[in-house]
Amino acid sequence: MDKKKVDRMVYVNRMDKHGNSVINENNNRNKTTKLTVFSCIIFTLFLFLRHRMILRKTYEEQKMSLFSETGFYYSFYEEIVNSPTNIFSTIINKMIFDERTEYPDTINSISRFNIYQEICLGITYRLLREMFFRTKYFLSLLYSIQFEKHSFSEAILRNIDYKSRYFNTFISPFNFYYYVINTILGIGMGFLCGTSTYISNGSYISGLVCMGFLFGNFQLRLLSRISSLPLRENFALPIIWINNLILISIFKEKKKMNKKWALFFITSLIQLEFWQFSVFIIATQMVSAFIIYLLGYEHNVFELKLVNMIKIHLLSLACSYLLHFFNNYILFSLAMSVGISIFLSILVTRIFLNRGKNTEFSFFNSFFTGIFSLVIFILINKITSPFSNGDTHVYDMLKSLLFGNEFNNFDTMIYKMGGSEFSWITKQQLKMIHNSGVLYFFLPNIFFILTMVVIDLIKSIYSLNKSYSGTEYFKPNSSMLTYETKCSDDEVSLYSSSSRSSIYSSSTSSSPKSTTMSVNDWKTCNEYLIEQDYSVLKKTDKKDAVYMPLNISNENATYELQETKLETYILYFFIQTIFFCILAVIISRLRVLAIPYISIFAALLASKSYLLFLKNYYKDVYLTIFNKRSNEYSNIRTSKVKRGNFVVKMISNLLFLSLVLFMLSISFLRFPLSELKSGLISENNSSPSKSRLVDWINTNLPDGTPILADMVVSSTLRLMTNAKIVTHPQYEHIKIRERTQFIYSISACIPIKELYETMEKIYKTEYLLLSIYRCATPNNIDGTITVVDVTEYLDNIKHRCNNQENIFQRTCWRIQLDNNSRYFELVYRNAQYSIYRRIGRTEISIDLIKSNNENDVLNNYSQFPYNRKLLDWSESWKPWIVNNCIENDKFCPQNIVDYARMIIDIYNLIDVSKLIYEKAISLYPNNGYVIYNYAEFLDYDFGGNHESIQKYYNKSINILGRISISEFGLDKTGVNPGFALKMIIGFILYNEQTTGRNMKNVISSLELIIENKTIKEIALNLDKLDKNDVIEYLNDNIVDINYDMCLRNLAYNICMISSYLKSIEIESKEILTKQKKYPNWLINKIYSRLWKVSNLIDPNNACIVKYWSLFNNNVNKGNLDYLYSFLLG
């Protein structure tokens, strides 16, 4: 054969000793690395900006904004960061021997919870803080020694103090936590784009399209719940994505991979430590790989990798078991039983069926292995079921979702309560995913891969049948000649065609006759080897070289294409994605697992290499079906390989370019602009009620006081106070589930005496803290599950109600209203929370105990006269307000009127609310907060006459003359400077709505605004400060969460005042001209600076958006304005 002709036909690619394409693989890695780094930077910056408003809050408000489990996990970080003792003493005394979290029990929190990330971050933060202050001290000493002049030394120290202030502003404990988590998630999302590039053999376009799809689904917590920072999945998901990429690369490459196996073990262990649900994800990994093994893909080669993967996962589970101090949840987890059953089934098959030898794929062996693994799995779970109860609620929830409400129990109902996160994925969520455009490409690609699996399965069955009938699977052409190789045996090594670094591989198992030459001797032996039945490369574009195994004989022989199959790493990724999609459909919250992989799978269609793979695969199927293989290649000669003509190539390239541009436009142009238009704030659960509750507990109760509360409030108590708690949101332990049921029985009809005795004898707690939302029935128009629905599934039937009780007849209200069964005293209340003290037995009269025993036996709650009790001031409200509120609550007037407001909002009890408002007015006749809220009540709810409403509005405004910034805090007027701005704008709007805009109203309004000291301070002095100094000043002097004056509300009120002044200038020029007290230039200066400050604090607040056109030539805020605000606001 002519060597030149052969070289023209064959694209010779350099191979390493394991048969991998060195050039292509290195090129793939380099491109993957570049795209990953680029994507990491983009996503991290985006996440930093997306919720940055939380960084502008005070540290206390930042902590208070955390909700339920997020606050619970953060509390462990807080303990390490702010503990007065050393780090290790804190870990031992407060975590390993934790007396606060499940009082009266002492538990090992490190064993029970996934808090290693909080421990690591807390230690890191303390070390950085210590390093900073030591450096500061060293510099102070150095400058003191070197510079003797006091003025210069003072200037140096002032500069050092500024650095300290800068450190505390941007690297506070919460801000450090924020930056770390967002960086981790940004890196993880970058690895998702890198995964797309890696699978598509180095396609940058595929990675960019994946990035666009990820951005397109980043809305309303659809793709990520990063708005709830401390959630376990925010730490674990990036590790899971990296772990999967490592596993894909292991499946793809065929060389020794000890380093990758080590990284795979480390990432598997980390994800187990970071998220309790990781055991289920690891189980899906093993099952996905096991399915590939059972289907026979690269049978012998893949078996070794599968066994290695299972060994590493079992090792990581064992290490996690040790790190969690022998937590049975890990030992008896699904991942452990799945791994053991698969490993034993493969081992038994190899020993008894294959007799310890590597054999060809056999459907019988595969079927036996699958059935045997299932039997072992069932036996393991049967044996361990008495000891494994940590995840039974998960299986109960799955049964309830899959098989109907008849499988509902308390655990399933509490997960479904109030929302859709633990129910089936909603139509709205599916619509958002559809609007991103990702499904247009994901579903066809899934269809392509699924079809390939079916075809490959049919091929395998057909080939095995031929093999069993005595026919060779790869039958050479009859005209094929045999040549004697001139290469030594050492130069030829067995080589599976599946090891090529292409997107697809050859047959089910490697042919023992297929060989390749060593790299060093290719030049001397390729002419001889190519004349025999060895795989060579059909030359295509070098950037997308596709390996086409050919059977070649002499020049007159035919050339037959061998059967091709899907690569195992693509099939693995396909099965894993299907698993995650199924989980996401069943449990909506698990969409965070599915959507990233959906985006990757859709983006693969933007890869030219992947499209060529699809084309060649289905072309091969077509040729096989219609028996055109021989004719197709009969004219191929070693002297020449036919190429497609130029026109066909041009059309193909244009089609590919059109598809790429279409996918890029779909992915990026579908970006949800709502993310740019939002308030740039994460989930915010801080409130005046929560702040006042924390302040009262820290002021009035000793440290270490045990308090019984629901899991949500308990998390806040653990984070913000030194109290001990009984329950918490980590629901995996059966003891916590029992305690949670007891808490919910208070929302039902547990006898008051039983509640008293259980608190006394079992939980040893004196105080009971109830949220008003645990004793309310919100409108259930859309079928949302409420707390009342959950209580109907209490295990203790005696604690359930009989569905005839009104909400005010349930235990949570009776312990307040039923004075004849006074086992509890209401010692504190605000709008959302109430605290009851369990009265000591020496304080309860014998007559009350006897009478209450009779009532408790009957437990006839439906006969309780709640209507009379609610309107009885002396019996129901006076004991709280007179005996406790006035005596020990510094926010007593604010709490009374806020509670009256809540009575209307939740229960719509106007008469009860009116009673409480009037008592507040009589007790606090000169409190501006009380008077203004009563005026709003008369105006919006009660419908009082105009004179009465005007009287109370005027009275509340007159009090503002006694308020200045120096009086910030609590004073007899009951109003802080920030809330005063809300009062001003409310008063102005009321006057304009009732009497119109006239000279009197305008002058009165201008006087209220311009003469207000807070307005003067903001408009005249803050203009000289930068943004950080403005925010710091406002937080220190004006903002007070106790008055609902967070920065966002302050920005809104400032904007409303600014917009009002601007509207006067535009619409009432004649009135402004007639009045001489306030010149136009002064009005213009004030509203311009107020607008600037409001835009500086919160550029997307509702007022800014609504009145943007007033300040921008009647042009509404556009997308470019939102983009500018997002990037630089």
Automatic annotation (TrEMBL):
The keyword Transmembrane applies. GO terms for cellular component: nuclear inner membrane. Belongs to the dpy-19 family. It holds the Pfam family Dpy19. It is a multi-pass membrane protein. The chain crosses the membrane at residues 32-49, 176-198, 204-223, 235-251, 274-294, 329-349, 361-380, 438-458, 569-588, 594-613, 646-669. This is Uncharacterized protein. It is found in: Membrane.
